[in-house]
Amino acid sequence: MEWSKDDCLMLIQEYQKYKLLWDAKDPFHYSKTKKHDAWCSLAKLFNTDHEEVRKKMASLSGSFRREKAKGKKSMGTGKGAMEVYISNWFAFKSMLFLADKDQPRPTLNTESVCINVILIIANNNK
């Protein structure tokens, strides 16, 4: 299938609706069958097979990561506002919903959790 810019933008818009495909925090993200069903639903919208849609999204995601990295790399110490890279790639703004998907979850302070567990056990044994 030949993908026009409009097709790509529509694919991104539809892909965003299937959070389980791109958000690791989604409860169904690790369900192969649910993800396969989602890819098939997307493929049906574009009258193509699910592998074609998957490959196109992988390609678009790679381009988005590249553009995001260029912007991040250009924001060094001592750089002026005019030196910061601003992407002109046609799908960049449409894919910004993926910008923070790689942010780590807040860490858990295991020391305080252990202390709380010990206190609960101690109180229950009294």
Automatic annotation (TrEMBL):
Residues in MADF domain copies: 10-103
Name of the protein in question: MADF domain-containing protein
Native organism taxonomy: Eukaryota, Metazoa, Ecdysozoa, Arthropoda, Hexapoda
Listed Pfam families: MADF_DNA_bdg (PF10545)
Matching SMART domains: MADF
